[in-house]
Amino acid sequence: MRSPSRIQPIVTLTGALALFLAGCAHYYPHELPPYPPPESAYATSPPPEAPPAAGHQSPGTSHRSPGTGRQPLAARHEPLPTSHQPLATSHWPPAPFLTKNGRPFPVFDCLLFLHKPDLRAYGLTPLSCPGSGFYRSNPWIPGGIDYSQPGLAQAQALARRTEAAGYTWCVLDIERWPNQGDAAAVDQTIRKYIELMDWMHAAAPELKIGFYAELPICDYWNAIKGPQSAAYQAWAAANRRLAPVARHVDAIFPSLYTFYTDFAGWQKYALANIAQARMYGKPVYPFLMPQYHDSNKKLAADFLPAGYWRQQLETCYAHADGIVIWGGWMDHNNHRCVWDPGAPWWQETLAFLREHGRR
Q1: Could you say which of 3.20.20, 3.40.140, 3.30.360, 3.30.43 is the CATH number of the domain covering 4-356?
Q2: Measured torsion, CA atoms of residues 190, 195, 198, 202, in degrees rounded to the nearest 10
Q3: Where are the beta strands (DSSP E) in the chain?
Q4: Which of the residue ranges 84-88, 132-136, 176-180, 198-202 would you say has the lowest mean pLDDT?
Q5: Which of 111, 113, 119, 133 could cysteine-pair with 30, CB 3.0–4.6 Å?
Q6: Domain residue ranges of the chain, discontinuous segments joined by +
Q7: What is the pLDDT of residues 212-245, one digit of tens each?
Q8: β-strand 208-211 against 169-172: which pairing, if any?
Q9: pTM tops 0.85, yes or no
Q10: 31 vs 324: CA distance, rounded Å
Protein backbone atom coordinates (compact mmCIF):
# COMPACT_ATOMS: atom_id res chain seq x y z
CA MET A 1 0.00 0.00 0.00
CA ARG A 2 1.38 3.38 -1.06
CA SER A 3 1.86 6.07 1.54
CA PRO A 4 -0.04 9.35 1.13
CA SER A 5 3.16 11.13 0.12
CA ARG A 6 3.56 8.82 -2.89
CA ILE A 7 -0.09 8.74 -3.88
CA GLN A 8 -0.53 12.52 -4.04
CA PRO A 9 1.86 13.16 -6.98
CA ILE A 10 0.22 10.36 -8.98
CA VAL A 11 -3.27 11.79 -8.40
CA THR A 12 -2.10 15.31 -9.21
CA LEU A 13 -0.37 14.19 -12.41
CA THR A 14 -3.41 12.16 -13.49
CA GLY A 15 -5.76 15.08 -12.87
CA ALA A 16 -3.53 17.51 -14.74
CA LEU A 17 -3.28 15.16 -17.72
CA ALA A 18 -7.07 14.71 -17.78
CA LEU A 19 -7.62 18.46 -17.67
CA PHE A 20 -5.15 18.97 -20.52
CA LEU A 21 -6.80 16.33 -22.70
CA ALA A 22 -10.25 17.72 -21.93
CA GLY A 23 -9.05 21.18 -22.88
CA CYS A 24 -7.74 19.88 -26.20
CA ALA A 25 -11.01 18.09 -26.83
CA HIS A 26 -13.29 21.07 -26.38
CA TYR A 27 -11.14 24.05 -27.33
CA TYR A 28 -12.05 23.67 -31.02
CA PRO A 29 -15.84 23.84 -30.77
CA HIS A 30 -15.63 26.78 -28.38
CA GLU A 31 -14.14 29.08 -31.00
CA LEU A 32 -16.42 31.69 -32.57
CA PRO A 33 -16.71 31.85 -36.35
CA PRO A 34 -15.10 34.96 -37.82
CA TYR A 35 -17.28 37.28 -39.85
CA PRO A 36 -17.17 37.17 -42.77
CA PRO A 37 -15.76 33.63 -42.53
CA PRO A 38 -12.51 33.08 -44.45
CA GLU A 39 -12.36 30.29 -46.99
CA SER A 40 -10.01 28.35 -44.70
CA ALA A 41 -12.70 28.25 -42.03
CA TYR A 42 -14.60 25.52 -43.84
CA ALA A 43 -13.96 21.85 -44.20
CA THR A 44 -14.05 20.34 -47.69
CA SER A 45 -15.12 16.97 -46.34
CA PRO A 46 -18.76 16.08 -45.59
CA PRO A 47 -20.22 16.96 -42.19
CA PRO A 48 -20.34 14.10 -39.68
CA GLU A 49 -23.22 11.71 -40.01
CA ALA A 50 -25.54 10.61 -37.23
CA PRO A 51 -27.40 7.32 -37.21
CA PRO A 52 -30.97 7.68 -38.49
CA ALA A 53 -33.54 8.13 -35.75
CA ALA A 54 -37.05 9.45 -35.45
CA GLY A 55 -36.82 12.97 -34.21
CA HIS A 56 -36.39 16.63 -34.94
CA GLN A 57 -32.96 16.12 -36.44
CA SER A 58 -31.81 14.14 -39.43
CA PRO A 59 -28.33 12.86 -40.32
CA GLY A 60 -25.73 15.53 -40.85
CA THR A 61 -27.72 18.48 -39.59
CA SER A 62 -28.66 20.19 -36.39
CA HIS A 63 -31.95 21.46 -37.76
CA ARG A 64 -35.29 20.09 -36.79
CA SER A 65 -37.35 17.87 -39.07
CA PRO A 66 -41.13 17.43 -38.84
CA GLY A 67 -40.89 14.77 -36.11
CA THR A 68 -41.34 15.28 -32.40
CA GLY A 69 -38.43 13.44 -30.76
CA ARG A 70 -34.79 14.40 -30.15
CA GLN A 71 -31.35 12.95 -30.62
CA PRO A 72 -27.79 14.24 -30.09
CA LEU A 73 -26.54 16.82 -32.56
CA ALA A 74 -24.59 15.67 -35.57
CA ALA A 75 -23.47 19.16 -36.57
CA ARG A 76 -23.61 22.77 -35.49
CA HIS A 77 -25.09 25.95 -36.84
CA GLU A 78 -21.81 27.82 -36.77
CA PRO A 79 -19.08 27.50 -39.45
CA LEU A 80 -16.13 25.27 -38.68
CA PRO A 81 -13.77 27.75 -37.03
CA THR A 82 -10.09 28.45 -37.38
CA SER A 83 -8.54 31.22 -35.32
CA HIS A 84 -10.87 33.56 -33.54
CA GLN A 85 -11.25 36.83 -35.41
CA PRO A 86 -13.46 39.85 -34.73
CA LEU A 87 -15.90 41.31 -37.19
CA ALA A 88 -14.16 43.48 -39.71
CA THR A 89 -14.94 47.15 -39.27
CA SER A 90 -16.74 48.75 -42.19
CA HIS A 91 -18.61 51.87 -43.15
CA TRP A 92 -21.89 50.05 -43.47
CA PRO A 93 -24.56 51.32 -41.09
CA PRO A 94 -25.23 48.93 -38.19
CA ALA A 95 -29.02 49.44 -38.35
CA PRO A 96 -31.08 47.28 -40.73
CA PHE A 97 -32.19 48.77 -44.02
CA LEU A 98 -35.68 47.33 -43.80
CA THR A 99 -38.56 48.93 -41.97
CA LYS A 100 -42.07 47.84 -41.17
CA ASN A 101 -44.64 50.37 -40.00
CA GLY A 102 -41.81 52.81 -39.37
CA ARG A 103 -39.84 50.39 -37.20
CA PRO A 104 -36.68 48.45 -38.11
CA PHE A 105 -37.24 44.97 -39.53
CA PRO A 106 -33.85 43.28 -39.06
CA VAL A 107 -32.61 40.66 -41.49
CA PHE A 108 -29.89 38.60 -39.81
CA ASP A 109 -27.08 36.86 -41.66
CA CYS A 110 -26.34 33.35 -40.37
CA LEU A 111 -25.29 31.94 -43.76
CA LEU A 112 -22.44 29.44 -44.09
CA PHE A 113 -21.52 29.66 -47.78
CA LEU A 114 -17.93 29.51 -48.97
CA HIS A 115 -16.72 32.82 -50.45
CA LYS A 116 -19.64 34.69 -48.94
CA PRO A 117 -19.13 38.47 -49.03
CA ASP A 118 -19.77 40.83 -46.15
CA LEU A 119 -23.56 41.04 -46.32
CA ARG A 120 -23.69 44.10 -44.12
CA ALA A 121 -23.34 45.92 -47.42
CA TYR A 122 -26.95 44.90 -48.09
CA GLY A 123 -28.22 45.76 -44.64
CA LEU A 124 -27.97 42.30 -43.07
CA THR A 125 -26.87 42.04 -39.45
CA PRO A 126 -24.39 39.26 -38.55
CA LEU A 127 -25.70 36.80 -35.98
CA SER A 128 -23.75 34.15 -34.09
CA CYS A 129 -25.49 30.80 -33.54
CA PRO A 130 -23.12 28.53 -31.59
CA GLY A 131 -24.02 24.93 -30.92
CA SER A 132 -21.36 24.54 -28.25
CA GLY A 133 -19.15 26.53 -25.93
CA PHE A 134 -21.68 26.83 -23.11
CA TYR A 135 -21.71 23.30 -21.71
CA ARG A 136 -20.05 22.30 -18.44
CA SER A 137 -16.52 20.92 -18.63
CA ASN A 138 -15.88 17.54 -17.03
CA PRO A 139 -12.40 16.04 -17.48
CA TRP A 140 -13.57 12.63 -16.27
CA ILE A 141 -15.89 11.87 -19.19
CA PRO A 142 -14.99 11.18 -22.84
CA GLY A 143 -14.46 14.42 -24.70
CA GLY A 144 -14.32 16.46 -21.52
CA ILE A 145 -17.75 18.08 -21.98
CA ASP A 146 -20.96 17.33 -20.09
CA TYR A 147 -23.65 18.13 -22.67
CA SER A 148 -26.38 17.57 -20.11
CA GLN A 149 -25.46 20.66 -18.07
CA PRO A 150 -24.70 24.32 -18.77
CA GLY A 151 -21.39 25.65 -17.48
CA LEU A 152 -21.16 29.02 -15.77
CA ALA A 153 -17.54 29.73 -16.73
CA GLN A 154 -18.01 28.41 -20.26
CA ALA A 155 -21.24 30.35 -20.94
CA GLN A 156 -19.81 33.61 -19.63
CA ALA A 157 -16.59 33.20 -21.60
CA LEU A 158 -18.65 32.58 -24.74
CA ALA A 159 -20.72 35.70 -24.13
CA ARG A 160 -17.61 37.84 -23.67
CA ARG A 161 -15.94 36.41 -26.79
CA THR A 162 -19.07 36.96 -28.85
CA GLU A 163 -19.40 40.56 -27.73
CA ALA A 164 -15.69 41.25 -28.17
CA ALA A 165 -15.87 39.86 -31.71
CA GLY A 166 -18.42 42.53 -32.62
CA TYR A 167 -21.60 40.47 -32.65
CA THR A 168 -24.67 42.06 -31.09
CA TRP A 169 -26.79 38.88 -31.24
CA CYS A 170 -26.05 35.35 -30.04
CA VAL A 171 -28.60 32.55 -30.49
CA LEU A 172 -27.81 29.27 -28.75
CA ASP A 173 -28.50 26.07 -30.68
CA ILE A 174 -29.10 23.34 -28.11
CA GLU A 175 -31.70 20.84 -29.44
CA ARG A 176 -30.70 18.17 -26.94
CA TRP A 177 -32.49 18.94 -23.65
CA PRO A 178 -36.12 17.70 -23.36
CA ASN A 179 -38.59 20.59 -23.55
CA GLN A 180 -41.78 18.52 -23.61
CA GLY A 181 -43.04 15.31 -22.05
CA ASP A 182 -41.83 14.24 -18.60
CA ALA A 183 -42.61 17.03 -16.14
CA ALA A 184 -39.47 16.66 -14.04
CA ALA A 185 -37.23 16.62 -17.12
CA VAL A 186 -38.91 19.71 -18.56
CA ASP A 187 -38.54 21.54 -15.24
CA GLN A 188 -34.83 20.79 -15.30
CA THR A 189 -34.56 22.06 -18.85
CA ILE A 190 -36.36 25.30 -17.95
CA ARG A 191 -33.93 25.80 -15.08
CA LYS A 192 -30.96 25.26 -17.39
CA TYR A 193 -32.32 27.61 -20.06
CA ILE A 194 -32.78 30.38 -17.47
CA GLU A 195 -29.35 29.81 -15.95
CA LEU A 196 -27.71 30.12 -19.35
CA MET A 197 -29.49 33.35 -20.21
CA ASP A 198 -28.81 34.94 -16.84
CA TRP A 199 -25.15 33.96 -16.81
CA MET A 200 -24.53 35.26 -20.31
CA HIS A 201 -26.42 38.52 -19.76
CA ALA A 202 -24.41 39.12 -16.59
CA ALA A 203 -21.14 38.63 -18.48
CA ALA A 204 -22.12 40.70 -21.54
CA PRO A 205 -25.02 43.02 -20.66
CA GLU A 206 -25.24 44.58 -24.13
CA LEU A 207 -25.34 41.24 -25.96
CA LYS A 208 -28.80 40.14 -27.15
CA ILE A 209 -29.38 36.44 -26.56
CA GLY A 210 -31.98 33.79 -27.35
CA PHE A 211 -32.50 30.14 -28.27
CA TYR A 212 -32.91 28.58 -31.70
CA ALA A 213 -36.24 26.71 -32.03
CA GLU A 214 -36.71 25.96 -28.34
CA LEU A 215 -39.75 28.15 -27.72
CA PRO A 216 -42.15 27.60 -29.19
CA ILE A 217 -41.39 23.90 -29.58
CA CYS A 218 -40.60 23.29 -33.24
CA ASP A 219 -43.50 21.34 -34.69
CA TYR A 220 -44.97 20.83 -38.14
CA TRP A 221 -47.67 18.16 -38.02
CA ASN A 222 -49.43 19.31 -34.87
CA ALA A 223 -49.15 22.93 -35.93
CA ILE A 224 -50.95 22.43 -39.24
CA LYS A 225 -53.87 20.57 -37.67
CA GLY A 226 -55.43 23.83 -36.52
CA PRO A 227 -56.23 25.38 -33.12
CA GLN A 228 -59.39 23.32 -32.66
CA SER A 229 -57.57 19.99 -32.79
CA ALA A 230 -56.46 18.14 -29.66
CA ALA A 231 -52.94 17.79 -31.08
CA TYR A 232 -52.57 21.53 -31.63
CA GLN A 233 -53.91 22.28 -28.15
CA ALA A 234 -51.45 19.84 -26.56
CA TRP A 235 -48.62 21.54 -28.46
CA ALA A 236 -49.84 24.97 -27.33
CA ALA A 237 -49.99 23.77 -23.71
CA ALA A 238 -46.41 22.52 -23.93
CA ASN A 239 -45.38 25.91 -25.31
CA ARG A 240 -47.12 27.75 -22.47
CA ARG A 241 -45.18 25.66 -20.00
CA LEU A 242 -41.96 27.23 -21.33
CA ALA A 243 -43.21 30.79 -20.71
CA PRO A 244 -40.89 31.38 -17.69
CA VAL A 245 -37.92 31.14 -20.06
CA ALA A 246 -39.25 33.94 -22.26
CA ARG A 247 -38.69 36.51 -19.52
CA HIS A 248 -34.94 35.87 -19.77
CA VAL A 249 -34.43 36.04 -23.56
CA ASP A 250 -34.26 39.08 -25.82
CA ALA A 251 -36.22 37.59 -28.73
CA ILE A 252 -37.94 34.41 -29.88
CA PHE A 253 -36.40 32.45 -32.77
CA PRO A 254 -38.79 29.84 -34.21
CA SER A 255 -37.55 27.54 -36.96
CA LEU A 256 -39.54 27.74 -40.22
CA TYR A 257 -37.49 25.59 -42.57
CA THR A 258 -39.02 24.00 -45.66
CA PHE A 259 -39.79 20.29 -45.78
CA TYR A 260 -42.16 20.08 -48.76
CA THR A 261 -42.99 21.87 -52.01
CA ASP A 262 -46.46 22.76 -50.73
CA PHE A 263 -46.47 26.48 -49.93
CA ALA A 264 -49.96 26.36 -48.41
CA GLY A 265 -48.75 23.74 -45.93
CA TRP A 266 -45.60 25.72 -45.15
CA GLN A 267 -47.59 28.91 -44.62
CA LYS A 268 -50.00 27.20 -42.23
CA TYR A 269 -47.06 25.77 -40.30
CA ALA A 270 -45.28 29.14 -40.27
CA LEU A 271 -48.28 31.16 -39.13
CA ALA A 272 -49.03 28.67 -36.34
CA ASN A 273 -45.45 28.81 -35.05
CA ILE A 274 -45.35 32.61 -35.25
CA ALA A 275 -48.67 32.80 -33.41
CA GLN A 276 -47.30 30.61 -30.64
CA ALA A 277 -44.13 32.70 -30.50
CA ARG A 278 -46.20 35.87 -30.09
CA MET A 279 -47.59 34.75 -26.75
CA TYR A 280 -44.17 35.25 -25.12
CA GLY A 281 -44.29 39.01 -25.62
CA LYS A 282 -40.85 39.34 -27.24
CA PRO A 283 -39.77 40.18 -30.81
CA VAL A 284 -40.19 37.21 -33.14
CA TYR A 285 -37.35 36.50 -35.60
CA PRO A 286 -37.93 33.21 -37.47
CA PHE A 287 -35.09 31.21 -38.99
CA LEU A 288 -35.51 30.70 -42.75
CA MET A 289 -33.37 28.61 -45.11
CA PRO A 290 -33.39 28.94 -48.93
CA GLN A 291 -32.87 25.18 -49.27
CA TYR A 292 -35.14 22.23 -48.56
CA HIS A 293 -34.52 20.54 -45.24
CA ASP A 294 -32.42 17.41 -45.56
CA SER A 295 -35.04 15.24 -43.85
CA ASN A 296 -36.73 15.21 -47.28
CA LYS A 297 -34.32 12.90 -49.08
CA LYS A 298 -35.78 13.69 -52.52
CA LEU A 299 -35.23 17.43 -52.17
CA ALA A 300 -32.41 17.70 -49.64
CA ALA A 301 -29.99 20.54 -50.48
CA ASP A 302 -32.11 21.74 -53.40
CA PHE A 303 -32.67 25.47 -53.38
CA LEU A 304 -36.22 26.70 -53.20
CA PRO A 305 -37.73 28.17 -56.37
CA ALA A 306 -37.35 31.95 -56.28
CA GLY A 307 -41.08 32.53 -56.06
CA TYR A 308 -41.49 30.11 -53.17
CA TRP A 309 -38.63 31.79 -51.29
CA ARG A 310 -40.12 35.24 -51.90
CA GLN A 311 -43.47 34.05 -50.52
CA GLN A 312 -41.71 32.93 -47.35
CA LEU A 313 -39.92 36.27 -47.00
CA GLU A 314 -43.18 38.16 -47.49
CA THR A 315 -45.05 35.93 -45.02
CA CYS A 316 -42.48 36.65 -42.34
CA TYR A 317 -42.42 40.34 -43.22
CA ALA A 318 -46.18 40.48 -42.73
CA HIS A 319 -46.34 38.49 -39.50
CA ALA A 320 -42.94 38.57 -37.74
CA ASP A 321 -40.57 41.29 -36.53
CA GLY A 322 -37.51 40.25 -38.53
CA ILE A 323 -35.88 37.15 -40.02
CA VAL A 324 -32.70 35.10 -39.71
CA ILE A 325 -31.41 33.58 -42.96
CA TRP A 326 -29.46 30.37 -42.44
CA GLY A 327 -28.17 27.98 -45.10
CA GLY A 328 -25.30 26.87 -47.25
CA TRP A 329 -24.28 24.13 -44.82
CA MET A 330 -24.44 21.32 -47.35
CA ASP A 331 -24.74 20.78 -51.11
CA HIS A 332 -25.63 17.57 -52.96
CA ASN A 333 -22.09 16.28 -52.44
CA ASN A 334 -22.24 16.88 -48.68
CA HIS A 335 -19.85 19.83 -48.98
CA ARG A 336 -20.36 23.45 -48.09
CA CYS A 337 -22.21 25.42 -50.73
CA VAL A 338 -20.27 28.03 -52.68
CA TRP A 339 -21.66 31.55 -52.72
CA ASP A 340 -23.33 32.48 -56.01
CA PRO A 341 -24.30 36.16 -56.26
CA GLY A 342 -26.55 35.34 -59.21
CA ALA A 343 -28.47 32.58 -57.44
CA PRO A 344 -32.24 33.05 -57.90
CA TRP A 345 -32.91 32.88 -54.15
CA TRP A 346 -30.36 35.63 -53.48
CA GLN A 347 -31.60 37.82 -56.33
CA GLU A 348 -35.11 37.46 -54.89
CA THR A 349 -33.75 38.42 -51.47
CA LEU A 350 -32.20 41.55 -52.94
CA ALA A 351 -35.50 42.44 -54.60
CA PHE A 352 -37.25 41.95 -51.27
CA LEU A 353 -34.71 44.19 -49.54
CA ARG A 354 -35.10 46.90 -52.19
CA GLU A 355 -38.88 46.81 -52.06
CA HIS A 356 -39.10 47.11 -48.28
CA GLY A 357 -35.94 49.16 -47.76
CA ARG A 358 -35.71 52.64 -46.36
CA ARG A 359 -36.77 55.39 -48.70
Answers
A1: 3.20.20
A2: -170
A3: 99-100, 103-104, 107-111, 125-126, 135-137, 145-150, 169-172, 208-211, 287-288, 323-327
A4: 84-88
A5: 133
A6: 4-356
A7: 999 999 999 999 999 999 999 999 999 999 999 9
A8: parallel
A9: no
A10: 21
